[in-house]
Amino acid sequence: MDGIKRQLVLHKGAEKYIFRYEKGSEDKLLDALIEQAKDKRTSFDWFDAAVVSFKLTQSLIGQADEILQQNSNVRVRTNLSARGTAD
Predict the structure, then answer these.
(1) CA-CA distances (angstroms) from residue 42 to 37, 45, 49, 75, 85?
(2) The pTM is what?
(3) Within a 10 A sphere around the Cβ of 42, how many other Cβ atoms?
């Protein structure tokens, strides 16, 4: 992993749930959400897990959009004479 820390926050009434994770370990975050939702000692439930999971998905989509935008700025040159046109 590259050590970049990310964070997702869920406010639920007076409670605040903060989930910190490293970029590239989103699967571990999802596992933690499941474990937290199963834990009856907290008010964090399956709906909350779905909300945080959705936030994670939105974050990943945003990152993918940034990568695609960066890559779309690369121009590809074509060689017209390779297509059979005369120079």
Answers:
(1) 8, 8, 12, 52, 71
(2) 0.72
(3) 13
Q: How far is CA 3 from the centre of its chain?
A: 15
CA angle at 10 for the pair 7 and 16, rounded to the nearest 5°: 100
In angstroms, rounded to a whole number, what is the distance separating the alpha carbons of residues 65 and 39?
35
Taking a C-beta distance cutoff of 8 angstroms, is the pair 37, 51 a contact? no
% of the chain residues with pLDDT over 70: 80
Q: Average pLDDT for residues 9-26, to the nearest whole number?
A: 94
Domain assignments of the chain as residue spans, ordered by start: 5-72
